[in-house]
TrEMBL record:
It holds the Pfam family HTH_18. This is AraC family transcriptional regulator. It comes from [Actinomadura] parvosata subsp. kistnae. InterPro entries: Class_I_gatase-like (IPR029062), DJ-1/PfpI (IPR002818), Homeodomain-like_sf (IPR009057), HTH_AraC (IPR018060), HTH_AraC-typ_CS (IPR018062), INH-QAR (IPR052158). The keyword ATP-binding does not apply. Residues 222-320 form the HTH araC/xylS-type domain. The keyword Transcription applies.
Amino acid sequence: MLLPPPARPHRVAVLAFDGMAPFELGCVVELFGLPRPELDLPWYDLTVCAETLQPLRVVGGFTMTAGHGLDALATADTVIVPGVADVRGPVSAALVRALREAYERGARMVSICSGAFALAAAGLLDGRPATTHWRYATLLQERFPAVRVNPSVLYVDDGDVLTSAGSAAGLDLLIHLVRRDHGPGVANTVARRLVVPPHREGGQAQFIQAAVTPVEDDDAVARAMAWAMDHLATPITVAELASVAHMSERTFIRRFKLRTGTSPLRWVISQRVAASLPLLESTAAPVEEIGAAVGFESPVTFRHHFTRAMRTSPSAYRKAFSP
């Protein structure tokens, strides 16, 4: 009896360019280029390509040479653009053509930070929700008005086209891709190898408007946060949190916001949603039971806050990410 041929590794092509910063490219290489035999499944086949095979200048004072030209995009299953050299300048006709051809062939298109400008120049973001680094969001909208720019989120998954905000948000999106391709268990294993959180939802805010300032009562706030994590399944009030921190409610709210950028109750809600994720992924418990287990007073409240945070329903999340 003939055995079926082994599954072909998923081909990922990432674009290098002259004048790039190395972090975003390094994240792609770390996620998709590093062999992971401990996972016992076909890992990704990564190709680094560029518009030229000449040495490319990299921020930090060194150069690198890509081993492949833009022709590598023609066989890629996923194409990743980690940035552009100039957010105000034109994207070359050759790159636009290569991106469009890859997309029309069925490749999944991904951008990190300013890479959204390349996808937009190729027309791949027209009529779609997309994001980029918050510093560039206004410019992206001005240059490409057909794009539905969301400047507030970490990343946007629009099916076959995905965009992320700057740097670390790109890492969140890359782990999200692993999660989509191989499930939460594999994504969590990879995240542990990287020593990063296994999941930050794309709808999370990119940054906190208020400056983070030192607070002498940080230990007290942290103590209240730790107490809340131990009591998520029970009703939690600001008065209780303030009591644990040995502060007045007014002082606690002010110092909590200085530390976290949000209010105590909003933070508690986000922790409850986060606590529901592994239960949805790994158990068959009804959604109503899971909501109650993490402290939501009713199924309606759970679904409301979950959908607001995750941009999907608990049932749809379970269908997408449970084994």
